[in-house]
Design a protein that fits this description.
The complex is a heteropentamer of chains A (about 350), B (about 250), C (about 290), D (about 240) and E (about 325).
Chain B lengths: L2 E12 L2 E12 L3 E5 L6 H8 L7 E6 L2 E2 L5 H6 L2 E3 L12 H10 L5 H6 L7 H10 L15 H13 L5 E5 L7 H17 L3 E5 L3 H7 L2 E6 L2 E6 L1 H6 L1 H8 L2
Parallel strand pairs in B: 3-8, 3-9, 6-7, 7-8
Antiparallel strand pairs in B: 1-2, 1-4, 4-5, 9-10
Chain C lengths: L1 H31 L6 H17 L4 H28 L4 H23 L14 E4 L2 E4 H23 L1 H11 L1 H6 L4 H27 L6 H15 L4 H21 L7 H13 L14
Antiparallel strand pairs in C: 1-2
Helix pairs in contact in C: 1-5, 1-6, 1-8, 1-9, 1-10, 2-3, 2-4, 2-8, 2-9, 3-8, 5-6, 5-8, 5-10, 6-8, 9-10, 9-11
Chain E lengths: L1 H6 L1 H16 L6 H26 L7 H17 L5 H24 L2 H21 L1 H4 L5 E2 L5 E2 L2 E2 L3 H24 L1 H11 L1 H6 L4 H27 L1 E2 L6 H15 L5 H20 L3 H15 L3 H23 L5 H6 L1
Antiparallel strand pairs in E: 1-4, 2-3
Helix pairs in contact in E: 3-8, 3-9, 3-11, 3-12, 3-13, 4-5, 4-6, 4-11, 5-11, 9-11, 12-13, 12-15, 13-14
Classes of the chains: A alpha/beta (about 350), B alpha/beta (about 250), C mainly alpha (about 290), D alpha/beta (about 240), E mainly alpha (about 325).
The structure holds adenosine-5'-triphosphate (2 copies) and magnesium ion (MG) (2 copies).
Keywords (chain D): Amino-acid transport, ATP-binding, Nucleotide-binding, Transport
Family (chain D): Belongs to the ABC transporter superfamily.
GO molecular function (chain D): ATP binding; ATP hydrolysis activity; branched-chain amino acid transmembrane transporter activity
C-alpha cells in the first residue's frame, strides 16, 4: 500500500520540549484516526517527527533533510524563531508547511506555503485589547511576559493594540523562561497602580506567578491569552488560578462536543490532559486532509493552493473541530472564546464569532 | 667586590607567623653562597620573597644596584636570574628534552621572533648536551613526570642552568641525588660559575656539599640571620652547631 | 518598605533552596574533588520516584522513603560505581563533561519515559503562609531554610569533628596517600555519594512542591546552586548557605530595582566580583601554599 | 642468621608497559637496619611501592614472615605490621598537622586508646610539629612536612618499616634525630628497610646493605663491608671517602 | 610536516584517506548531509580555538559559544546590510581578539572551576546582550535572510559550494593552529597548563601567554561564527547560549583535550553522531547520545585520542625499556673488567 509521507519537525527537547511534544502527540492522534478510517484518499499517512532541540540551526537542517525526501507536506515547527528559518526552505521548495507558530509577521514575510493552525497574534491581541479597554474599562495595564520569541511577540502585540485604544502600559515586566521565583515581579506589580494585569508566560511560570500574586494579595483582574487559562495552569496553580480571565483561541476545555470528544480521545491515548498545542498538531493534520480532499488527489505542489481560501465546516470534517476558513496568507478565521477560571475549571463566558462568518 | 644581589631588611609574615623577620645580606658577583638553617627558619620563604613569588611584607631587594622588589618572576628570569624550588617542579607531561628547551627559550629573541623561528628555538643542541652531561640521554624523550625523584631533581637544576643565567638561586638541589651524580652537579655548577661568571646562592642541608662548594655561608634561624662566614668559621660556630648541625 | 521586606524574605526563601542544593556541590568537592554538573537533575529525579510510587498507590510517607532509598541506590551507589570510579583519577574536566552528559540522559529519560509535562507535587510542610516583617512567607520555605541549616551543621560536624569525616577529606585531597595509610578510600567515596544522594532526595521532596516536577526543572536550579556554592566558598559547607542567601536576595533586588531584562546578569556580576576579590569565596579558605 | 622477615623472589613490576623490576630477588633479615643504595632511577622506590601494594607485581612472590603478601592492598599490609614512608611530599594539604598525624592510625583506630600519648611522643621527637599542630599542613616548610610524614609513619608499632629517603630536606640535626629514632626502633626489635642517598651516614648505622641497580639486587652484605668496597664507592658513593 | 608524514607511512595513509573522504564524500550526500558536514567544519573551528585555550594552555573557558555568537551577529548584521563577508570577518577577528584578551584577565587571578564560572558569566552576559539589545540584534525575533556570499564569481548559495567554503576555512584555521602549537609558543602554552609557577620562574611571561591563549582561541570561535551565520541563514540568541559553550567543551574533552585533532573528532561526535543516531533510535536519540558520551569517557577519560595514544605508546615504551637496560656503566660491567 502506498503511503503519504508527512514530515514533522518539532521542539522535542530544549526549552520548547513540552510545547513541541504536545504538538507531535496531537498530530499522531490525528494520523491514527485517519489511518484507522482508511487513510488519506485510501493511502496511509506516515509521519516521522524530528527533534529540532528548540534550535533554529538544527531545525533548518532537519527541514532540509525532510525536504530531501520529498514529503507530501511539512508539519511544524511551533516556535516562531525556528519557523522563520525553516519556512524559507519550504517556501523555496513549494512544499506546504503547516505550522504551530503564532508570531504576527510569519504570514507577512511573503513566504508562499505557510498555513497556520492557530490565530496569529495579529488576530488574538486586538480581541484581548478590546476586551480590556472596553469591557474592563482599564486605563492602566501591567504587562508581564516571558523574554523569548513567544513572550516578546505577545508583549509587542498587546502593547501596540492597547496603545491604539488609549490604554497606558504602566508596568512592563520581563521574566525569564523557567523562572521560579516571582516575588520581585509581583512586588513591582503591586507598586504599579494598574487596573488590569496581562500575563503572557508559559504554563509552569503562569502557575507560579499566580501563586505569588495570591500570596502577595493582589486583587486585580488577571488577563491572559490561551496559555494562562490552560487546564495545566489551573492544575498547577490550584485556587490561585480562580478568577483569571482572557481570550482563548484554542482550548481543549471548550464546551463544544467535538472538542470534548477530542479531549477524551487524547487522554485515552496519552493519559494526560491535552493543551492547545496538541490541538495545533491535531488540526494541522486535519488541515492537510481537508486540503487534499478538496483537490481530490495527492498533489504536493497543489496543496498550498488548495488550502488557501479553503473553508471547512466541522460538520463536514469533524477533525477540524470548529468551522474554519484559511485566507490567502495562510491565516485562520474561526470562533474564539472569552473564558474565566471558576472553581478550578475554565468556563467559557462568551464565544467570539469568526470575523467573516 | 661588586654586589649582584642586595637583600635589605626583608620580612615576610603570614598572619601572625613571622617566617622571615628582617634579613639583610649581600651576594657578591661570582661567588657561591650557601644558605643554611634549621627546618622552617624561613630560607625558602626568603627566596620566594626575593624572587617575586611572594610579596615581601617589608624590605627591599636590589639586583645590580636596581630595585627589583616585587618584580614579577618572569621578568626577573629574563634579567638573568634563575631558580629552582624546593618541591619538585618539572613539567610532568612534557619530555625531558622539551623541559630543557622550554627553560631556555624565553631568553631568545622576542615573543614574535620565537613564533616565526625554529621549533626548538635553537636550543636543541644545548639541551642534548645538558642531558648527556647528567647521563640521562636514554631518558631524553620520556615524560619528566615518569622520572625517579633524584632524576627529577637533577632535571630541575639543569633547567635552571639552561638560560645561561647570571644569578642562580637553588633550593635544596642535592636532596635525593645519588652521591656520584652529586659530584657531576657540583662540577657543572663550578663550571658555570667560572666560565660564565654566574653567581650562586644555594640552600642545602647536605653539609658536605655546602662546605666543599661555597665560599661563604649564611646561617638563618627563626627568620633572621644567625651568622655569616666562611665554611670553616660556620662549622666552628657554637650557635650554629647548637641550632643546626647537632653533635 | 513592605515591598522591600517582601523581596528580602522572598530572596532568603529562594536562597535557601539554592543552598540546599549547593551543599551537595560543596560536599562532593570537599570529600571527593568532583564536580557534578547533573546536581540539578539529581534534585529533579527523586520527585519522579515519588510520583511513580504514589502513582502505584503508596502513601506519601512510604513514597518518601522509597524515594530516598532509590536515590541512594541510583544517584549514590550506581553513580559512584559507574561514572565516578573510572574518572576520578583523571581530573575534574572529564568528570564534569560526563556529568553534563548524565544530565542530558536523566532529563531526556524522564521526558521520554515519563512525561514532558509539569506535575504538582504534594508538600511535606503545609502550603500555608506566615507573615514575617510584613511579608508573607510560606511554611514550605521555612522548612527548606531549617533543612539547609540543619544539613550544614550536621555535615560540618561530620567532616570536621569525626574521624570518618577527616578520612573523607583525606581521600579527596590525596587518594594515593590515603590508600597507603589504610584509609578505605573506596568506602569513603561511596559514603560521600550516598550522603549526597540522601541530601538531594530530601531537597527534592522539599523543593518540588515549589518548583513542580518537570524534567527540565533541574537546569536553572543546578546552575544557581553552583553559583551559590562558588560565591560562598567552594571548600566550606557553610559557604553554601551564605552564597545561596546572597544569590536569592540579590536576584530579587536586582529584578525589582535594576532591569528585569538583565536580571540574570546581576548575580553573575556579584560572582565575578567575589571571585576576583576573594577568589576562594566569601566563607571559603585559601586552598594551600603554592610555593 | 635467622629466617628473613621479607623476601622478594623474582619480582617483576613496572609502570604501565614499562618494566622496571625485572626478576628482583633479595631478602631482609629480621631485626636490623638494611640500607638500599643505588643510582637514581635504579628502581629503589619502585621496589617499595611494589612491596606495599601500590604497584602490582606482575610476576614473582613477596613473602613477609613466611606469608605470601604479593599484591595485598596497603590496608592488609598495615594490619600485618608493615608501614611505609614514601619519598616526596605525601600529606593532606588542607588538613591540620595534628589531623594529618592522627590519620596514620586509622587502621588501628579501635585498638589504640593511647593515641594521644603516641602523638605526644612524636611531638617530643619533632618539636616543630607541636608548635604547628593546628595549622594547615600545606603551610609547613619542606623539612617540616617530612617530619610530619615520619612522625605519622612511626605512629603504630610496626614489625617492618619501609622508609624511602627520610633525610631529604631535613637539617643535619634532624637527620641525626631520625636515625636515632630508627636505631631505637631497631633496639625494640623492629626491622627497618631504608633507602638513602645520604648513604655514608646511613650505612654507618646500618647492619646490612643492598645495592640495587637497573631494577636488580646486585650485592647484599654487611653494611661496613659495602661502605668500604672501592667499586661501590666509585659508582654509587661519589668516590672514596676522604677520611 | 611532509617529513613528519613520510616518517610515518600509516599516518600518511590516514591523512590521505581523510582528505579523500572530506573532498569526495559530500558529492554523494544529500543537501542535509552537506549541511551537517558544513556544520561539523564550523564547529570544529570553534572547538579548535577552545582546544588551544583549554587543551594546550589549560585555561577553562565556558565562553566559546559567546564568541561564535559575536562572530555570527557581526556577520548577520553587516551582510544583511549589504557588506561583503570579509568586512565582518575582519571586524570579528579584531573584536574577538580584543574581547578574548580582556576575558583572559580573570584567568590571571583565578583558575579551574572559578575561571569556568567567570567565563560562564561572560557567556550569559553576551547572550543577554544578543537578546535584549533589539536595536542592534533584533532581539528574540532574530535576523533572517542572511545572504551566502559569492566567491570568485561562484555563488555559495549551493549547499555543496558552501560546504567546500567551510572546509577551506577549516583547513586554513587548522594550518595556522598547527603552526602555532608546533612553535615555541605551543611549548609555552603547555608549560602554562602544567606548572604556571615554574614556567614563570623560567621567564615564561605567563600573563601574556594566558591572554594570548584566550585571545587566539576566542578569535577562532568568532571565525566559526562568521561561517555559522550564512550557513544557517538565520540567527537568534538561543543557539549561542550556555549549551553551545558546554557542547564545545564536550567536543574538546571527548575528542581528546590537548591533542591537535581532538576537536575534529569531538565535533564529529557532538554534531554528527546525534544526527546519525536519530535514524536508529528515533525519539530516544538524545538518550542514546548521552549514554554513548558517558561510555566513551568511562572507557577513556582522556578522550578518543588519549586512548589512541595509549595504544601507540606501547611500542615507544618497549623501546624506552630497552634503552634503559643499555644505559650507564653498571656494577656488573665494572667487576667484569
Ligand atoms: N603560606 C604560609 N602560611 C603560613 N605559614 C607559612 C607559609 N609559608 C611558610 N610558612 C611558615 O614559615 C616558616 C618558614 O618556612 P620556609 O619554607 O621558608 O622554611 P625553610 O627554611 O625553607 O625550611 P626547610 O629547610 O624545612 O625547607 C615555616 O614555619 C612555615 O610553617
Ligand atoms: N610514575 C612513573 N611512571 C613511569 N615511570 C616511572 C614512574 N616512576 C618511576 N619511573 C621510572 O622507574 C625507574 C625507577 O624509578 P624509582 O623511582 O624506583 O627510582 P629510584 O631508585 O627510587 O631513584 P631515586 O634515587 O632517584 O629516587 C626510573 O627510571 C623512572 O623513570
Ligand atoms: Mg625550604
Ligand atoms: Mg626513589
Amino acid at each position: 500500500q502506498a503511503q503519504v509521507k508527512i514530515a514533522c519537525v518539532s521542539e522535542l527537547s530544549g526549552p520548547g520540549a513540552t510545547v513541541g511534544i504536545n504538538f507531535r502527540n496531537g498530530a499522531n492522534l490525528a494520523i491514527d484516526e485517519i489511518n484507522a478510517a482508511g487513510g488519506l484518499l485510501g493511502q496511509k499517512i506516515e509521519m516521522n517527527c524530528a527533534d529540532s532541540q528548540t534550535n533554529p540551526g538544527v531545525a533548518r537542517g532537519l527541514v532540509q533533510k525532510a525536504l530531501d525526501a520529498n514529503p507530501y507536506a511539512v508539519l511544524g515547527p511551533v516556535y516562531s524563531g525556528s519557523i522563520k528559518v525553516t519556512a524559507q526552505l519550504t517556501s523555496e521548495s513549494g512544499v506546504t508547511n503547516v505550522i504551530g507558530g503564532e508570531a504576527a509577521e510569519l504570514t507577512q514575510m511573503g513566504l508562499k506555503t505557510l498555513i497556520r493552525t492557530s490565530f496569529g497574534q495579529q488576530i488574538s491581541m486586538p480581541k484581548l485589547a478590546a476586551y480590556m479597554a472596553d469591557d474592563l474599562k482599564a486605563k492602566n495595564v501591567a504587562v508581564i511576559w516571558v523574554n523569548n520569541d513567544f513572550g516578546k511577540g505577545g508583549r509587542d502585540g498587546i502593547t501596540k493594540e492597547l496603545k491604539a485604544r488609549g490604554v497606558t502600559i504602566s508596568a512592563d515586566i520581563s521574566t525569564e523562561a523557567a523562572q521560579v521565583d516571582f516575588a520581585a515581579d509581583v512586588a513591582k506589580l503591586k507598586q504599579a497602580e494598574v487596573d488590569a494585569v496581562f500575563i503572557y508566560l508559559h504554563e509552569e511560570e503562569s502557575a507560579r506567578i499566580l501563586k505569588e500574586i495570591q500570596k502577595q494579595g493582589i486583587k486585580k483582574p488577571l488577563i491572559g491569552e490561551t496559555t494562562l487559562l490552560n487546564q495545566k495552569v489551573i492544575e498547577l496553580a490550584g485556587d490561585a488560578a480562580n478568577g483569571v480571565r482572557g481570550h482563548v483561541g484554542l482550548t481543549a476545555d471548550a464546551p463544544i462536543p467535538s472538542i470534548e470528544a477530542y479531549r477524551h480521545k487524547f487522554m485515552a491515548k496519552y493519559n494526560y490532559v491535552p493543551d492547545h498545542n496538541s490541538m495545533k498538531g491535531y488540526l494541522g493534520i486535519y488541515t492537510i486532509k481537508a486540503g487534499t480532499q478538496k483537490m481530490g488527489k495527492l498533489d504536493p505542489k497543489g496543496l498550498t493552493a488548495a488550502l488557501k481560501g479553503l473553508s471547512v465546516k466541522a460538520a463536514d470534517e469533524p477533525g477540524m473541530l470548529m468551522d474554519v476558513s484559511i485566507d490567502q496568507n495562510g491565516d485562520l478565521d474561526r470562533i474564539g472564546f472569552l473564558a474565566e477560571v471558576q472553581n478550578g475549571t475554565t468556563v467559557i463566558t462568551k464565544t467570539l464569532p469568526a470575523l467573516k462568518p | 667586590m661588586t654586589k649582584v644581589l642586595e637583600i635589605h631588611g626583608i620580612k615576610k609574615h603570614f598572619g601572625g607567623i613571622r617566617a622571615v623577620d628582617g634579613v639583610s645580606f649581600d651576594v657578591n658577583k661570582g661567588e657561591i653562597l650557601g644558605l643554611i638553617g634549621p627546618n622552617g627558619c624561613g630560607k625558602s620563604t626568603l627566596f620566594n620573597a626575593v624572587l617575586g613569588q611572594l610579596e615581601p611584607t617589608a624590605g627591599r631587594v636590589m639586583l645590580d644596584g636596581h630595585d627589583i622588589t616585587g618584580m614579577r618572576p618572569a621578568r626577573l628570569s629574563r634579567l638573568g636570574v634563575s631558580r629552582t624550588f624546593q618541591l619538585l617542579q618539572v613539567f610532568p607531561e612534557m619530555s625531558v628534552r622539551e623541559n630543557l628547551i622550554l627553560a631556555g627559550q624565553e631568553h631568545r629573541g622576542t615573543m614574535v621572533s620565537r613564533l616565526f623561528g625554529p621549533r626548538d628555538a635553537g636550543l636543541g643542541e644545548a639541551a642534548d648536551r645538558m642531558i648527556a652531561f647528567f647521563k640521562m640521554s636514554h631518558l631524553a624523550g620520556e615524560k619528566a613526570g615518569g622520572l625517579s625523584y633524584g632524576q627529577q631533581k637533577l632535571l630541575d637544576a639543569a633547567m635552571a642552568f639552561m638560560a645561561g643565567p647570571r644569578l642562580v638561586l637553588l633550593d635544596e638541589p642535592a636532596g635525593g641525588v645519588n652521591l656520584t651524580m652529586l659530584g657531576a652537579l657540583k662540577e657543572r655548577l663550578r663550571a658555570i660559575n667560572s666560565e660564565l661568571g654566574a653567581t650562586f646562592v644555594v640552600i642545602e642541608h647536605n653539609m658536605e656539599f655546602v662546605m666543599s662548594l661555597c665560599q661563604r655561608v649564611v646561617v638563618m634561624a627563626e627568620g633572621r640571620v644567625l651568622a655569616i662566614g666562611t665554611p670553616a668559621e660556620i662549622r666552628a660556630n657554637p650557635a650554629v652547631i647548637d641550632a643546626y648541625l647537632g653533635h | 518598605m513592605s515591598t522591600f521586606s517582601t523581596l528580602i524574605v522572598g530572596g532568603l526563601a529562594t536562597g535557601a533552596i539554592y543552598a540546599v542544593v549547593a551543599i551537595g556541590f560543596a560536599l562532593l568537592w570537599q570529600a571527593s574533588q568532583t564536580i557534578n554538573f547533573a546536581q540539578g537533575e539529581f534534585v529533579m529525579l527523586p520527585a519522579f520516584f515519588a510520583l511513580i510510587a504514589m502513582g502505584m498507590g503508596a502513601p506519601y510517607w512510604l513514597a518518601a522513603l522509597v524515594t530516598i532509598g532509590m536515590s541512594v541506590v541510583i544517584l549514590g551507589a550506581m553513580f559512584k560505581q559507574m561514572l565516578v570510579d573510572p574518572m576520578i583519577k583523571h581530573g575534574v574536566l572529564p568528570m564534569a563533561i560526563a556529568t553534563m552528559a548524565l544530565a542530558i540522559f536523566m532529563k531526556e529519560s524522564v521526558k521520554d519515559l515519563y512525561s514532558a509535562e509539569a506535575y504538582p507535587f504534594p508538600s511535606l510542610v503545609p502550603d500555608r503562609n506566615l507573615a514575617i516583617l510584613g511579608a508573607n512567607i510560606s511554611l514550605q520555605h521555612i522548612g527548606i531554610i531549617v533543612t539547609a541549616i540543619g544539613a550544614i551543621i550536621g555535615l560540618t560536624l561530620l567532616l570536621e569533628r569525626t574521624s570518618i569525616g577527616r578520612q573523607m577529606q583525606a581521600t579527596a585531597q590525596n587518594p594515593t596517600v590515603a590508600r597507603l595509610l589504610g584509609i578505605p578510600v573506596e568506602r569513603m567515596i561511596l559514603l560521600t555519594f550516598v550522603i549526597n544522594a540522601v541530601l538531594v532526595s530530601i531537597a527534592s521532596l522539599l523543593v518540588t512542591p515549589i518548583y513542580l516536577a518537570k524534567f527540565s526543572s533541574g537546569e536553572t536550579l543546578g546552575l544557581a546552586a553552583f553559583i551559590a556554592a562558588i560565591i560562598g566558598g567552594f571548600n566550606q559547607l557553610r559557604g553554601a548557605i551564605i552564597g545561596g542567601f546572597l544569590l536569592g536576595v540579590v536576584d530579587n533586588l536586582a529584578a525589582a530595582y535594576i532591569s528585569t531584562q538583565y536580571r540574570s546578569a546581576v548575580p553573575l556580576f556579584i560572582l565575578i566580583a567575589v571571585i576576583l576579590f576573594r577568589p576562594h569565596g566569601i566563607a571559603g579558605r585559601k586552598e594551600e601554599r603554592t610555593v | 642468621m635467622s629466617e628473613p622477615v621479607l623476601a622478594l623472589e623474582n619480582v617483576t613490576a613496572g609502570y604501565g608497559r614499562m618494566t622496571i623490576l625485572n626478576g628482583t630477588t633479595f631478602s631482609v633479615p629480621r631485626g636490623g637496619i638494611t640500607t638500599v643504595i643505588g643510582p637514581n632511577g635504579a628502581g629503589k622506590s619502585t621496589v617499595f611501592k611494589t612491596i606495599f601494594g601500590m604497584l602490582p607485581a606482575r610476576a614473582g612472590r613477596i613473602g613477609f614472615e613466611g606469608r605470601d603478601i604479593t599484591n595485598l592492598p596497603p590496608r592488609d599490609l598495615l594490619a600485618a605490621g608493615i608501614c611505609y614512608i614514601p619519598q616526596g611530599r605525601n600529606i593532606f594539604p588542607q588538613l591540620s598537622v595534628r589531623h594529618n598525624i592522627e590519620l596514620g592510625a586509622v587502621t588501628a583506630a579501635r585498638r589504640l586508646d593511647d593515641l594521644p600519648r603516641r602523638i605526644e611522643r612524636a611531638f617530643e621527637r619533632f618539636p616543630a610539629l607541636r608548635e604547628k599542630a593546628s595549622v594547615q599542613a600545606s603551610t609547613l616548610s619542606g623539612g617540616q612536612q617530612k617530619q610530619l610524614e615520619i612522625a605519622r609513619g612511626l605512629l603504630l608499632d610496626p614489625k617492618l618499616i619501609l622508609i624511602d629517603e627520610p633525610s631529604i630536606g631535613l637539617s643535619p640535626k634532624l637527620v641525626q634525630e631520625t636515625f636515632a629514632a630508627l636505631q631505637e626502633l631497631r633496639a625494640a626489635g623492629v626491622t627497618i628497610l631504608l633507602i638513602e642517598q645520604n648513604a655514608r651516614s646511613a650505612l654507618e648505622i646500618s647492619d646490612h646493605a643492598l645495592v640495587l641497580e637497573l631494577g636488580q639486587a646486585r650485592i647484599f652484605g654487611p653494611a661496613k663491608e659495602i661502605l668500604h668496597d672501592p667499586r661501590v664507592a666509585e659508582l654509587f658513593l661519589g668516590g672514596l671517602a676522604h677520611d | 610536516m611532509i617529513a613528519l608524514l613520510r616518517s610515518r607511512p600509516a599516518a600518511c595513509a590516514l591523512a590521505i584517506g581523510v582528505a579523500c573522504i572530506l573532498l569526495f564524500l559530500p558529492l554523494t550526500l544529500s543537501r542535509f548531509g552537506n549541511y551537517m558536514l558544513a556544520m561539523w567544519a564550523v564547529m570544529t573551528i570553534a572547538a579548535m580555538g577552545l582546544n588551544l585555550t583549554l587543551g594546550y594552555a589549560g585555561q577553562v573557558s565556558l565562553a566559546q559559544g559567546a564568541f561564535v555568537g559575536i562572530g555570527a551577529y557581526a556577520t548577520a548584521i553587516m551582510t544583511v546590510n549589504g557588506w561583503p563577508l570579509y568586512a565582518p570577518l575582519l571586524l570579528t577577528v579584531a573584536l574577538c581578539f580584543a574581547i578574548g584578551w580582556l576575558l583572559g584577565y580573570p584567568a590571571l587571578r583565578v583558575q579551574h572551576h572559578y575561571l569556568a564560572f567567570v567565563t560562564l558569566s561572560f557567556a550569559t552576559l553576551a547572550y543577554l546582550v544578543f537578546r535584549n539589545e533589539e536595536w542592534l540584534t533584533k532581539g528574540t525575533y532574530g535576523i533572517f535572510g542572511i545572504p551566502r556570499p559569492t566567491l570568485f564569481g561562484v555563488s555559495l548559495k549551493h549547499h555543496l559550494n558552501f560546504y567546500y567554503f567551510s572546509l577551506a576555512w577549516l583547513v586554513i584555521c587548522a594550518g595556522l593552529m598547527l603552526w602555532l602549537v608546533n612553535s615555541p609558543w605551543g611549548r609555552a602554552f603547555t608549560a602554562l597548563r602544567e606548572n604556571p609557577a615554574r614556567a614563570q620562574s623560567l621567564g615564561v611571561d605567563t600573563r601574556r601567554y594566558t591572554l594570548m591563549a584566550f585571545a587566539i582561541g576566542s578569535t577562532m570561535g568568532g571565525v566559526a561564527g562568521v561561517l555559522y551565520a550564512p550557513l544557517v541563514e538565520f540567527i537568534d540568541p538561543n543557539p549561542f547560549g550556555l549549551p553551545l559553550s558546554f557542547s564545545l567543551l564536550l567536543m574538546v574533552i571527548v575528542g581528546g583535550s590537548g591533542y591537535f585533532l581532538g576537536p575534529a573528532l569531538g565535533a564529529l561526535i557532538a554534531v554528527l553522531l546525534p544526527e546519525w543516531l536519530r535514524d536508529y533510535t528515533q525519539g530516544y536519540y538524545l538518550i542514546a547520545y548521552a549514554l554513548l558520551v558517558m561510555v566513551l569517557l568511562i572507557y577513556s577519560p582522556s578522550g578518543i585520542l588519549g586512548w589512541v595514544e595509549r595504544r601507540t605508546a606501547d611500542a615507544r615504551t618497549r623501546r624506552a625499556s630497552l634503552a634503559r637496560q643499555a644505559a650507564v656503566p653498571t656494577y656488573d660491567a665494572g667487576s667484569a673488567s
